[in-house]
């Protein structure tokens, strides 16, 4: 990565971390994917029950493969015969792994969901939430973050899942009410009432969508 971009991201990350701290959340900065993986695993005690919301970012740093190992109790929604039961079990997990669709420079988290299992687990349930966030998802303010979530993350995920939504065809949010829409619930996390629950690892890389 260009050294100028690296320096810019380091400085911006410090601003974001201060914003998170002011909102009773904890932020970290990792210069590489390997650093991010090491940091994430340091936040997850061995033996923990772990669930996740389908995070591409967590997979890209190798975290998903790591927690599927024998040292952890991974709740694998994709492998479960009863997916609803697996999703409900996530609310009682020790750790929930996810990312954000976008976030602001002052630490506000923006997430959009179709089934609400991911946003509801971020809001309440699991004892700890560990988020893996590429610096590409940091936006100037809440308006910019919402626009990113709706016009970048949502269309890309709709295409990834092979859904028949207007945004999957146009690449941009059409504010649709399609039966396939994944923009059903919007969660803005501006403060965590519970200290030491939400941990955000900012990674100096392009992760997720």
Description:
The protein is of the alpha/beta class and 209 residues long. It has helices at 3-22, 33-42, 56-60, 63-67, 83-89, 117-123, 142-160, 166-170; strands at 26-30, 49-52, 73-74, 95-98, 102-104, 109-113, 128-134, 138-139, 185-189, 198-203. The chain is globular and about 40 Å long.
What's the helix and strand layout?
Elements: H1 3-22, E1 26-30, H2 33-42, E2 49-52, H3 56-60, H4 63-67, E3 73-74, H5 83-89, E4 95-98, E5 102-104, E6 109-113, H6 117-123, E7 128-134, E8 138-139, H7 142-160, H8 166-170, E9 185-189, E10 198-203
Parallel strand pairs: 1-10, 2-3, 2-4, 4-7, 5-8, 7-10
Antiparallel strand pairs: 5-6, 6-9
From the structure above, extract its key features:
21% strand, 209 residues, Rossmann fold, 37% helix, 10 strands, alpha/beta, four-stranded mixed beta sheet, six-stranded parallel beta sheet, single chain
């Amino acid at each position: 990565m260009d050294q100028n971009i690296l320096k810019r991201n380091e400085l911006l990350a410090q601003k974001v971390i201060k914003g998170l701290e002011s909102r009773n959340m904890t932020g970290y900065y990792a210069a590489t994917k390997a650093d991010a993986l090491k940091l994430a695993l340091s936040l997850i005690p061995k033996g923990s029950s772990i669930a996740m919301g389908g995070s591409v970012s967590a997979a890209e740093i190798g975290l998903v493969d790591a927690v599927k190992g024998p040292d952890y109790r991974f709740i694998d929604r994709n492998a479960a015969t009863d997916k609803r039961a697996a999703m409900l079990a996530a609310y009682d997990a020790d750790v929930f792994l996810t990312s954000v669709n976008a976030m602001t420079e002052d630490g506000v988290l923006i997430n959009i969901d179709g089934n609400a299992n991911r946003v509801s687990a971020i809001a309440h349930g699991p004892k700890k939430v560990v988020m893996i966030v590429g610096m590409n998802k940091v936006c100037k303010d809440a308006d910019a973050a919402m626009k990113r979530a709706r016009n970048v993350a949502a269309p890309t995920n709709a295409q990834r899942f092979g859904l028949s939504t207007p945004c999957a065809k146009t690449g941009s949010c059409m504010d649709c009410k399609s039966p396939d829409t994944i923009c059903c619930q919007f969660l803005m996390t501006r403060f965590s009432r519970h200290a030491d629950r939400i941990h955000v690892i900012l990674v100096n890389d392009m992760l997720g969508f």
